[in-house]
Amino acid sequence: MSATPQISVVVPVFNERDNIAPLVHEITAALRDVAEFEIVYVDDHSRDDTLAVLTALKSQVPELRVIQHLRQSGQSTAIRTGVKAARAPWIATLDGDGQNDPADIPKLIAQRANGDDSIKLFAGWRVNRRDSGSKRWASKWANAIRARMLRDDTPDTGCGIKLFERAAFLDLPYFDHMHRYLPALMQRAGWKTVSVPVNHRPRSTGVSKYNNLNRALVGINDLRGVSWLIRRNKITGTREV
């Protein structure tokens, strides 16, 4: 494994034992000739043998690092744990269920190479979602409300595949479920964000950890909180003299 990876791929997982090996091998295949990389899996205290599968896989994949939460803490905390542990200046994130396509990571990297330095987040945009009709409808409704309240000009904030600067992320206010509002939070900090069309795949094994009701109930309070943060924000330009 390189001492100085250019990209750290952070993958939060909870009870995803059957999706781990295929996804890890897809990540390595996508990035092997693109950039020096590491893969940081964060096991959010799974109840199945996710941790054992990850530990065994380390002998086959030298780029793989594994961190375990000692108690279940949620996806946002798992992402932040991985970002804090990451050694690269730029972070790519993927959901651990295999619905995000690692082959899209080089596309995001290419967008960064061609973008200006003020863009700190390249967010995946699932233009052809492979979820149930009820889930797509709920997401469309939630995105419309979020866009109206936050004006973040982002068509899909729920997509797990993203590329962002590590330092910019760690400077954002941290709270549970913050990963759903990264474009708005980055823009609040004075940075630009770009949405990039990406592939989306049906879940092949395991079950979703969310349902439409709990997403909606949590989302209402989160939207109010993020909206308050935006209203109370002050961005001050600085220069060293």
Automatic annotation (TrEMBL):
Alphabetized InterPro entries for the sequence: Glyco_trans_2-like, Glycosyltransferase_2, Nucleotide-diphossugar_trans
Segments forming domain Glycosyltransferase 2-like: 8-169
Domain of life (superkingdom): Bacteria
Protein name per Swiss-Prot or TrEMBL: Glycosyltransferase family 2 protein
Swiss-Prot/TrEMBL keywords: Cell membrane, Glycosyltransferase, Lipopolysaccharide biosynthesis, Membrane, Transferase, Transmembrane, Transmembrane helix
Species annotation: Lysobacter panacisoli
Transferase among keywords: yes
Gene3D superfamilies according to UniProt: Spore Coat Polysaccharide Biosynthesis Protein SpsA, Chain A
A Pfam family of this chain: Glycos_transf_2
Lineage start: Bacteria, Pseudomonadati, Pseudomonadota, Gammaproteobacteria, Lysobacterales
